[in-house]
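Subject line: Sequence and fold of a protein, written as structure tokens
Enclosed: The protein record, placed directly beneath this head.
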Amino acid sequence: MSTTLEKTILTRAIQIMETGHTRGVFARDAGSREVSWWSKRAARFCALGALYRAVRETVGEGELELELVSQYERNLGSAVCVWRLNDGYGKRAAIQHFEKRLCKL
């Protein structure tokens, strides 16, 4: 994956989390109901939900999307690591984790 593409996706994931953040689920709507991260109603995202959404917004749905998500999960220290960071320490910790990766690019 190109460095430019990775920067674009991580930057967008951070923007998505800053707009609205949640814990315990990939996404919630404006009424705090759980929705899928790809739902048009999604308004708040956990770190992984934001990452998945940013990938889809950037490259669309399909094989490349799945490949990139898989690669990000490896580069960021696994999906479980990001999930625990998000749910255990919150939005700021998750954003800082993504920012660290951006600094390495």
Summary: The two ends are 11 Å apart (CA to CA).
